[in-house]
Queue: 3 jobs
Job 1
Amino acid sequence: MKLLENKVALITGGGRGIGRSICESFAENGCNVAFTYNSSKEAAENLVEELKKYDVKVKCYKSDASDHDKSVELIDNVISDFERIDVLVNNAGITKDNLLMRMSPSDFKDVVNINLGSVFNLTKSSIRIFLKQKEGSIINISSIVGVKGNAGQSNYAASKAGIIGFSKSIALELGSRNIRCNVVAPGFIETDMTDSLSDDVLEKWKESIPLKRSGKPNDVGNACVFLASDLSSYITGQVLQVDGGLLT
Ligand code: NAP
């Protein structure tokens, strides 16, 4: 029996990067996968085709995770297609980096709305499903920047630290209903988000990582499989850093 056999997961921002890898790791472990995209339609449709080899049900949905009404509609659509949701992974996120001196109010609001607002929207919209099913696992993708802070990323750090406080509160509120809520805080993972960094910056990062390599999207995918599976059924309210030891 595979680790996520017969479960249904909903992953936001699944078409690219870390989200894509979470979808792949879940499907490989027998999970039926519903995932969203916002702008990457072609990549999302390709992923649906690609995951068919795992013999699980897969469907993608266009949905802006920062829009509350769209999130309610999304949950209704997923339930009508899949009948249940066992795991919610809030992965969608953006960066708009700048020093505070140069950061516009809209750059601050956009990042907080998409990164943290989306976690509120999707978690609130799916709670009634988890309560009805009397179980559920919510996994929120934060960042080590949300734990430590980072110069030039005050908007991003605030949104990612907010995710940690939100998740711990949900774990306390809903633990008695068998609904778990954990955070994965990736370190430096190679995706489009980190692609724009210069070779110099990349080398400096790698040098400071105890495991001496950057992370791959599937390093995060594997951590999510654990938190989605029954292997973690006594774990809630935790922040799992997937960072090669960077913050240690
Ligand atoms: P990425 O390659 O830039 O992908 C971002 C994903 O978020 C895309 O699938 C994108 O979908 C989706 N997204 C953005 N805005 C959205 C919206 N309004 N509604 C729905 N989906 C939206 O970034 P990544 O590196 O995979 O990052 C994924 C998550 O991991 C983010 O939360 C990020 O903060 C976090 N993280 C990444 C790193 C890293 O080193 N890469 C480190 C720590 C944390 P579309 O393309 O369809 O718009």
Job 2
Amino acid sequence: MYDTIAAVSSSGGPIGLIRVSGEHAIAAVEAVFRAKNGKPLSAAPSQKLVYGTLHDKNNNMIDSCFAVCMRAPHTYTGEDMAELQCHGSTALLTQALEALFAQGVRQAEAGEFTRRAFLNGKMDLAGAEAVHDLITARTAEAAQNAAAQVMGAVGSPVREIREELLGMVAHFHAIVDFPDEDIDPILFDDAAALLHRTTTRLYGMAESYERGRILREGVPCVILGRPNAGKSTLLNTLLGRERAIVTPIPGTTRDLIEENVKVGSILLRVSDTAGLRDTTDPVEQVGIDRALAQASASSLILAVFDGSQTLGDEDMLVLARAAGQRAVAIVNKSDLAQQLDIDRIKHHFEHVVYLSAKTGEGLDELLHLIPNLVGLTDGAYDGALITNARQAAALARAAERCEAALYAAQSGMTPDAVVMDAEGAIAALGEITGETVTEAVVTRIFSDFCVGK
Ligand code: GDP
């Protein structure tokens, strides 16, 4: 049993939600709330909104509001909970919290409600982590994936695999404990079949992280090109508004301009950069250095060339920087007479798109290509994509240990070799659901949460 905690759980809207959880949650809210119907709050049925007024410790009215009590164990945290729906001003909500603190309630720490939900068995650790992803999701698709994971899209299959491995290990333990008895070869065959299936499945889940991370964090992408190639115009066209300054004067964009653009189901975190060229202007040089550094840190380069010009020395800087990275050559200004040596561009780039950033012609092709390039085109965000580095690492470890156990089972090694590796896999899977995770890891996970969740 934990102490009673409270926090503001809404963020800045006209309605403010205060959430209270713990043994004294209902009593504490009852002490600061007068129901209009004159009945004590604790007499109200669970989950029924009650209208009334909120009071400070001197009985001054703070607000008119709704209160609701929710009784354990059917609550988010698994404890008794109560909530107040007040008006949303920070001053008012602070007063309301102080009134609760006067009743012996304390301020909740970051993620403490969800941590309690996990500790009280209301959700597994993978589900709890997905709550954070859900709150911080930047696209509808990322939110959809996270919502499915809150409901167990990662925890359920991991638990299922873990149970299967536990069953297999139990069989092998029987042999390890009675070494004189003959070993049924079917046992090894069955174990090998299970381990083979499981290894494939676990590697598949671990590998989905590459795409899952893109879904959650977006794709860092840089627009590179010589001055006047049309980089800022391209950014503006992608954004559908004037963000970057577009002029015919080379060297206008001197620093990075960063914007988020939704392309299909992915978030492109685009940086427009200073045009690459040799310059004696120290300020412009700083911008160019930043552009080059940003290109190295990006997962995708949009290399813009002016199709109406021949290739120049400045374009060579772009070709050199894009080499070896995931990149698209954009031959811009397709609305003008073309002079660019396309064969040389094609020699350096696997993907070439012809467009006019000015008229928007050809843009659809680019928008179609980008999700394909980063491997995020399917429409089903059912939680199957792993979006969490910790989970991905544990899945990869579990897969490796399963593979080692498979090798042991197939090559006629002693049963305890199979058991040792399978138990390693079981422990790694337990880190995902939370069965075998350390207190320090749990603390770190929930410290990333916001207060009030
Ligand atoms: P940046 O220096 O690479 O950012 O280039 P800007 O986006 O500032 O564009 C430089 C000049 O090229 C401006 O006058 C733009 O209007 C013009 N421009 C950009 N894209 C196109 C295009 O697709 N067609 C034509 N005709 N002009 C363009």
Job 3
Amino acid sequence: MSLKLDTTFLSDYVSDDELKSMQEHVDAAAAKVINRSGAGSDFLGWYSLPDDYDRDEFIRIKAAAKRIRANTDIFIVIGIGGSYLGACAAIEFLKGSNYNLIEKNIPKIYFAGNSLSSSSMNDLLAMCKGKRVTLNVVSKSGTTTEPGIAFRILRRFVEEQYGGDEDKIRERIIVTTDKSRGALKTLANKKGYESFVVPDDIGGRFSVLSAVGLLPIAVAGCDIDAMMRGAADMKAKLSKSGCVFENDCYKYAALRNILYAKGKLLEIFVSFDPALSMVAEWWKQLFGESEGKDGKALFPISVIDTTDLHSLGQIIQQGRRIMFETFVDVKNETSDIDIPIDEENLDQLNYIAEKGYTMSYVNSVAAKATKTAHWAGGVPGITINLEDRSEHTFGGLVYFFELACAVSGYILGVNPFDQPGVEGYKSNMFALLGKTGEKYDTIRAKFDDKA
Ligand code: PA5
């Protein structure tokens, strides 16, 4: 089994009776997902995706990835939010955060269009000079400002690099967008760019197992067949029982709602491996954008330990008791290393080295010590144990969190599949930039001179 939930560090905070009392809420929420009868049910395509994806497109994705690996020095994924976080999370999970420094047989992979920072764009352009660059622009709507601006700049760079030779440029630009509509689809049709589909019924933050995530992940040399199998195996496993004591996904969804009802306001995603820092970012978007509406929801934050034990660890241990932690532990590290014995022992660490404890063993002890200390300090903890950092496990983890998020959101009483709140800043920005037809909110207008 690639994923297992452990609730040891919830003891004294959540009782079996409390969990049992959630069964009817879980049943109702799960029925909304399975029967497609809840709010936002047009966006449930991810639910059956592991069994029911477009096999022909999958073959095209693998062929494109092979070609890109052979003819590209720098592969740039242009997208924001759900259009990049999943791919970024997967690649770091599978290859570690230093893959661009270490890997020799794949292109360098960069993510652009997820900010409006001109200096990071200039840095990227400087790195691309004289290199064979391929762009994958990912946008379901095709009109999102940040990737739109980045694509304009990077496309111009590629066009200039190839002196306007349309055939060569065509080889360098791949579009992932709506199957038939939108600005990007229109451009792809006009220019003959290869394009992949963001399915109509899958929102950005649920799209990592579609072409959105799969193409960049395959370019990184990862096994996307194993990833889809992992998701399908997880789906099968979670379909066996709806009981909150047997189904880890439903149990997690129920526990988060119990803790929220008891006054916990923050859920902290904790990993003891920096390879999971982008998984944490993906998870924050998934839960934050899906649940944070109608004045409700746990605020999802993340820490990477042990580094954050030397910063946020203080507030977790002794700040306001409004939080709980969700630890995502990896059982089998990808590699391990011995700690050398030092004759002088000035740092007094020989007591570890002499016992033959490896670095990853010490890390696992740090995790146990943290869970115990935080539990005793008033911060309950849930642990999600992962077998390893493989493609199969990643696919399973994605599916686990997507289903947990949908069920949890329905228990909370929100539509987990919309994001009306992200429009606020957009309409103000458009109005301030002078887009025709946009009005700057009159209340906020008073801040104009201060902004
Ligand atoms: O999850 C979501 O729906 C969002 O994060 C979108 O993915 C994000 O806003 C980017 O949208 P688009 O793919 O239309 O450019």
